[in-house]
Amino acid sequence: MNALSLPTWFIHIASVVEWIAAIFLVWRFATVTGQRAWRGLAWAMLPALAGAMSALTWHFFDNSPELDWIVTLQASLTLMGNCTLALAAGSIWYQSRQSNSRSL
Known about the structure:
The structure is a single chain. The model has no long low-confidence stretch (mean pLDDT 94). The protein is mostly helical. The protein contains 4 helices and no strands. It has one domain (6-103).
């Protein structure tokens, strides 16, 4: 566990906790407002969270060369997370356009 300094560990772990809190808050917002597209955003955030957790796992084991495949997994999850987040953002945009056109 000494691959990272204590402050760096703190930032990494705080980022993961912050991301979990953001997922919870987005889900709650979707529930309160009844806007289902926001629930899709919460689901779309999960691959990025898994990518962050895989990076923490690799660092926990001192960036062991035997676990280099975790770096590839993390990169793949980040790519998938970026794509799912883009799709979810598009869905929110589309839903807002639909609701705006109905209110006119």
